[in-house]
Amino acid sequence: MSDRPRLRRCPWCHAPVLTALVGNPCGLNVRADPVPLGLADELRARLEGRFSYCLRLHPYLPPRLIRRGPEHIAAGRCTHLVVADHQCPAGTSAVSATQPIEPDSLF
Ligand SMILES: [Zn+2]
Ligand SMILES: [Zn+2]
User: 53 and 22 in contact (C-beta within 8 Å)?
Assistant: First the structure.
């Protein structure tokens, strides 16, 4: 159980994705595209119903993936890299709603 991001391959399109369990202890299995987004890209991703996350890199601590809540965005002083949910070209547009979740991620 860790919110440390790992680089894995998407099981559907085999693109490299950042996976992490975000929001311990009841983590959400996140697959994010490992591409830093600008404000416009992030806005577009969120309009598409994808969540965005902060990739917090620290020279001494392990990297962490953090859910970007409205208050975090509103704070406006974020220096993290911003990534968004993986948009799977192999799936439908409503990826998280229609694709099966691995059984071990449900509980
Ligand atoms: Zn941040
Ligand atoms: Zn994919």
Answer: yes
